[in-house]
Structure formats: structure tokens, C-alpha cells
Amino acid sequence: MRTTATIFLMVLSCGAAWSQSADAPLTFEVASIKPSPPPDGRGMRVGCPGGPGSSDPGRITCTNINLANLVSMAYGLARYQLLGLSLSDTDRFEITAKVPEGATKEQVKLMWQNLLKERFKLAVHREQKEMQVYELSVAKGGLKAKDSVEEPPPSADAPPSVPPRDGPPKFQLDKDGFPELPAGRGPSMIMMNGKARWRASKATMDQVASMLGAQLNQPVTDVTGLKGKYDFTLSWATESFGGGRGVAVGSSEGGSPLAGLPDTDGGPTLLSALQSQLGLKLEQKKGSIEVVVVDHVERVPTEN
After folding, report:
1. In whole angstroms, what is the distance from residue 138 CA to residue 230 CA?
2. Taking the complete model, does pTM exceed 0.70, yes or no?
3. Strands 280-296, 82-83: parallel, antiparallel or unpaired by DSSP?
4. How far apart are CA 271 and CA 259, in angstroms?
5. Interior CA angle at 85 toward 27 and 93, to 5°?
6. What is the pLDDT of residue 23?
7. Residue 5: what pLDDT?
8. What is the C-alpha radius of gyration for the chain, rounded to an integer number of angstroms?
9. I need a surface site. Which of 14, 177, 277, 292 has the fewest CB within 10 A?
10. Is 18 exposed, middle or buried (0-12, 13-18, 19+ CB in 10 A)?
11. CA-CA distance, 11 to 8, in Å (whole number)?
12. H or E segment at 3?
């Protein structure tokens, strides 16, 4: 009888311990945060490769990442959904985080949120905000993007890919001043000297809408009804956004097509390129979206 009672108590104890562990905040096993070195004038790499679904699932290494980037990544936000921090902040960090074995992408987001609360004393709240939104639809004349086709597997005698060199990559410009994309059929985007070029591979219309939202800094919803995947190259002049040219055009009442926009001296605006090169258009409307507002954050993290 005493043995049975002992076993029963042990089971209760194990259950209590498991419950506490399950309720504990999700955290990285180890996380090191250091200030990034000052820029050297040659450009910089910015990103957080690694983690679940990558070739290095157990480690995430962030380079030249600022607080706005970190908060956006942690909460899965587009930049227009974050209020109180700027993506142009110059305080940047190098972060190395060890991910627990078996962690999912959603769990890693919670780990980032908890790291920001612990190390940067981040406090946020959510609210609804009225703002201008866009709807992406097919323009008159039809879609001009090509249906994506499956690439054949590389042959056994294909030359090995060349690993990236240290330092920022160098790009050539074509006769119109647009950056030439690296060889290959993979997706890539380059912006330099007021010009941009985006090569999409197997892109859905939802992904196109997300890219446009990032460029316009406003929500874009896909209403094309297209369910396929597409390959295309889109080229436009980024300097058109400096004064809002090519963006705030037309009335927002009831939806207004942003079509026939004048090109800039440096090339087509994003919106006119979208229509002439891809056969897509945007309409402005009023909408309400959820945003995350930063109530407090420390610019200097607690020590490692």
C-alpha cells in the first residue's frame, strides 16, 4: 500500500513539473546580442538566416538588424503595421540565437518576442487603424506574366554553384541604368541608384501583393482571383517614392484605379510598370487594419 502511494505521489510530482515547463515562456537556449560594426561605405548585408525550415535549423544568425526589423519579424508584421519604431534606425545588432531542437517557426516567433521583452524591455499593444489600402486586380488587356514551369533537375555534370564572397555583391547596370540580376532562375531583387528590378519565380498573386505592400508601405490585397504561380521580371524607378509621385494618385472614395501614371525621368513608376509589364493594376480604398504600437523599448539591450 505504501509503495502504491509512493508511486502515485511520484506521478503527481512529474505531472506538476511538466505543467510548469509547458507554461514557461518559450526562449532560445542561448542568445548573444552585440552592436553591429559601423558601416564602411560599401553597403551592408541585412538579414536573419537559419532556424526551422532552413539548412541550419538549430541556429539563427542576424546581421545588421535593427529593432524595427526584429519586432516586425517577431510579430509577423509588414512595416506599415508597426508604429513607434523606424526601419531607418541606425542602431543595428549582430544576434546569434541557438534554437531548441524540434522548435517550429511559430514557436521561434514567440522566442523572439520573449527575447525582446527580456533584453530590450519591449512593451506593445495592438489596435485597429484606419488607413489607405490597395486592391490588386488584372488590368484591361489581361495578365502579361508567364505561367511558371517546373525547372529540370540539374544534370550530374553541371558546374557547382559558386559560394558568395565576403562583402556586398557587385552588380552591373544595363543600358537603361537598371541593375542586372545574377545568373540563374531563382527569385531575387536589387535596388540601387534609384532603380529596382525584381525577378520572381513561382510567385503567387498573394506574394506579389505582399511585395507591393512592402514597397508602397500600405496594405495590398489580392483580388485577381488568379491561383497559379508565375515567372516575371519587373523594373521600375524607386526614386518616384521620394515625393510620393506615382503613389497618391486618384480619389480614394469608392476605389480609384491607379493607371496610366506618368513615368519619371529615371524610368517607370512601380504602378505604371506593374500595368505595362505585368498587366496588373491597383485601386485605392479606405480600410482598417490591425497594427502593433510600441509603448516602451530600451535601445541598449541587457548584457549577454
Report:
1. 14
2. no
3. parallel
4. 7
5. 55
6. 64
7. 42
8. 24
9. 14
10. exposed
11. 5
12. helix 2-23
Q: Position of cell 523599448?
A: 297
* pLDDT tens digits, 246-298: 332 222 233 333 433 445 556 889 999 999 999 999 999 999 999 999 999 99
In this predicted structure, what is the pLDDT of residue 184? 58
Task: Give the SS3 label for residue 221.
Answer: strand
d(CA 96, CA 5): 47
How far is residue 69 from each of residues 44, 75, 90, 296, measured CA to CA in Å?
15, 10, 11, 16
Which residues does 209 contact at the CB level (< 8 Å), separation at least 6?
Answer: 136, 220, 221, 222
DSSP for 257-272, written as a single string: E--SPPPBTTB--HHH
Q: What is the pLDDT of residue 157?
A: 62
Q: Which residues of the chain register pLDDT less than 50?
A: 1-20, 163, 165, 240-262
| Three cell numbers written together for 222 | 489580392
β-bridge partners, 293: 83, 125
| Buried residues in 38-51 as b, exposed as e (16+ CB within 10 A) | eeeeeeeeeebebb
- CA 164, 52, 101, 34 dihedral sign is positive
Give SS3 for 134. Answer: strand
